[in-house]
């Protein structure tokens, strides 16, 4: 209930404050485990993706945010999974795989942090690991533009990547990660 209320408020704010365009939302499967993987430009990105989908989702949030009294409590109640960046956080990986195995949707920014120059950075293999272990399809996404009223921000969802099919073809996590990076780059250029 809290998730739906907060999403409605944030959605209204985003569409009032920014010029938001969403393309391809229908490409997100209506059920089953889904991992949305997007480029990451701004602290505004996680809420943008969350308000642009019909399904409730979990998401990674840096553990430092959970130490902020009100914010930490709120994001915890909104399905955030704390992650210690740069440390190979096994607990965060375990929780994310569990969320997917329960048929939920999870948002990850596989670059690991926000880009400083707007270009897609190399992706970490954690998203591929989580998708394989959680039996999830990966939906690539690209955030383009600027968070202002004049230029506007566009969120494009790509076609789902069948990770299990790639694994059956003999592809490994590195191959899946390279495929994901290629798909996000294609969305950024479209």
From TrEMBL:
One example of a Gene Ontology biological process annotation: phosphatidic acid biosynthetic process
Record's protein name: 1-acyl-sn-glycerol-3-phosphate acyltransferase
GO cellular component, one term: membrane
Enzyme class: transferase
CDD domains: LPLAT_AGPAT-like
GO molecular function: 1-acylglycerol-3-phosphate O-acyltransferase activity
Recorded superkingdom: Bacteria
Native species: Lacicoccus qingdaonensis
Enzyme Commission numbers on file: 2.3.1.51
Family from the record: Belongs to the 1-acyl-sn-glycerol-3-phosphate acyltransferase family.
């Amino acid at each position: 209930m809290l998730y739906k209320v907060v999403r409605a408020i944030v959605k209204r704010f985003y569409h009032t404050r920014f010029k938001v365009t969403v393309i391809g939302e229908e490409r997100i499967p209506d059920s089953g485990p889904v991992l949305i993987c997007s480029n990451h430009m701004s602290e505004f990105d996680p809420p943008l993706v969350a308000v642009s989908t019909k399904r409730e989702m979990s998401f990674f949030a840096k553990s430092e945010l959970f130490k902020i009294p009100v914010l930490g409590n709120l994001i915890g109640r909104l399905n955030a999974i704390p992650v210690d960046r740069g440390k190979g956080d096994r607990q965060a990986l375990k929780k994310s795989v569990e969320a997917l195995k329960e048929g939920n949707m999870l948002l990850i920014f596989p670059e690991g942090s926000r880009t400083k120059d707007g270009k897609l950075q190399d992706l970490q293999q954690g998203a591929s690991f989580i998708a394989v272990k959680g039996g999830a399809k990966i939906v690539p996404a690209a955030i383009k533009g600027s968070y202002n009223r004049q230029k506007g921000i566009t969120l494009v969802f790509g076609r789902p990547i069948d990770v299990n099919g790639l694994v059956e073809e003999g592809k490994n996590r590195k191959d899946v990660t390279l495929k994901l990076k290629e798909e996000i780059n294609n969305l950024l250029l479209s």
